[in-house]
Design brief:
By secondary structure, the chain is mainly α. It has nine helices and no strands. Helix 1 packs parallel to helix 6, helix 2 packs across helix 6 and helix 2 crosses helix 9. The longest helix is centred in the N-terminal third of the chain and has 39 residues.
Length: 277
């Protein structure tokens, strides 16, 4: 399969993220819906965190097993991959924490009349818009790794596997779309279509890029790096969303929403797993 077809497969998997974005335009009275969507997002992200950590640690454990069993082999591959794994999580977590803190400090320094004018498509001076952006970044890093899987399957001639991966990842992205804009739903300002489109591009676009790179070469170090970055960023976003959930104050909604999000994540993962059987 050529790179054009690999990019098309990645595009199909990534474009479904736009299906859930209009939910961000819900009115300010939809507090209950916002609380449920926020909780579902936490559930989906918890699944994604488990998913990316599982896939990221597999090559590290394989290198460790090889070094332990084959005494003639060097331990450097394990040390290198393990460093990428831990370093990626640290950079992903602390990088987003530092960036969010920097943006918040800038927003406080801006004159209120300027901030209210809504300069910039993403409106990063607003906490809800900033959180939606951070969610999109975390999901985008995860989708890049999904694109790598699609491209590598296509490049190795496993077309049927690549197609089923596209179906599974497309279902994932459909749920991730409303996860991105959940913080925006019910806010005082409805997000514009330009803002929603840009958030969708940040979250879904990396799937195409990953598919193209995956079709060119297979590289464990690259996959581990982006999976670890995604894990770190997802950890940060989950903490932020839990804070939002506590402010909304609907306890049982939080628990049910998390369960729904986890169920949706595992259901789509089972489809992908079934393709590899």
């Amino acid at each position: 399969m050529n790179l054009t077809n690999a990019a098309i497969l990645g595009g199909i998997a990534g474009v479904t993220i736009f299906l859930g974005l209009p939910i961000g335009r819900l009115g300010p009275r939809a507090v209950g819906v916002r609380s449920l969507l926020n909780a579902i997002t936490i559930g989906v992200l918890l699944f994604l965190l488990w998913d990316v950590l599982t896939h990221a640690v597999e090559p590290v454990e394989a290198a460790l097993t090889k070094a332990a069993l084959d005494h003639t082999d060097s331990w450097w591959p394990f040390i290198g991959l393990g460093s990428l794994f831990l370093g990626g999580i640290i950079v992903g977590l602390m990088g987003l924490a530092g960036y969010d803190r920097w943006i918040a400090a800038r927003a406080k320094a801006i004159d209120p009349t300027i901030a209210d004018s809504g300069r910039g498509v993403l409106h990063l001076h607003e906490p809800a818009s900033r959180l939606a952006f951070l969610i999109a970044v975390g999901i985008g890093l995860h989708n890049f790794s999904e694109g790598l899987a699609i491209g590598q399957s296509a490049a190795s001639g496993e077309i049927s596997l690549a197609v089923v991966l596209v179906v599974g990842f497309a279902l994932h992205n459909a749920t991730e779309g409303f996860g991105i804009t959940a913080p925006l739903a019910g806010g005082s300002r409805r997000p514009g279509w330009g803002q929603l489109a840009l958030l969708g591009l940040i979250g879904g676009g990396p799937t195409v890029v990953g598919s193209i790179l995956g079709g060119i070469f297979v590289n464990d170090a690259l996959a581990i790096t982006f999976l670890a970055l995604a894990a770190g960023s997802i950890i940060y976003v989950i903490i932020q969303l839990l804070g939002v959930a506590l402010k909304l104050g609907r306890g049982y909604t939080l628990y049910w929403g998390i369960l729904i999000g986890l169920a949706a994540g595992f259901a789509t993962d089972f489809i992908v797993t079934a393709a590899g059987v």
